[in-house]
Write a structure and sequence with these properties.
There is one protein chain. The chain is mostly beta strands. Strands 2, 4, 5, 6, 9, 10 and 11 form a seven-stranded mixed β-sheet that branches. A hairpin with a 4-residue loop joins strand 7 and strand 8.
């Protein structure tokens, strides 16, 4: 089992940057693939990015490709999401999640954090 806690959200102007962190408890963090999802008001939770257990494979949603970068530091039990060139449409609650294998589907993820709010003012 792994517990996940997101941090780093906040209010930023369009065009700005934020870095989200996802801290994991437990000694098995490095055995999980990890992902970021987001949910805007009135919308379904959607895939943002995912990273394999080693960090060698990454997936991105088309809407964030080229602007967001997912990474992880297994020694620190932490995953990151660097978000650049933020747009108003990126406003959402961002969730980190853990899965047994890298995936884009919500249903593949077993453990979830509580989320952190990102608000981009236009």
């Amino acid at each position: 089992q792994v517990e996940l806690v997101e941090s780093g959200g906040g209010l930023v102007q369009a065009g700005g940057s934020l870095r989200l962190s996802c801290a994991a408890s437990g000694r098995t963090f490095s055995s999980y693939a990890m992902g970021w999802f987001r949910q805007a008001p009135g919308k379904e939770r959607e895939f943002v990015a995912a990273i394999s257990w080693s960090g060698s494979i990454t997936y991105y949603a088309d809407s964030v490709k080229g602007r967001f970068t997912i990474s992880r530091d297994n020694a620190k039990n932490t995953m990151y999401l660097q978000m650049n060139s933020l747009k108003h449409d990126d406003t959402a609650v961002y969730y980190c999640a853990a899965a047994y294998g890298i995936a884009r589907l919500r249903s593949e993820y077993r453990y979830w954090g509580q989320g952190t709010q990102v608000t981009v003012s236009s």
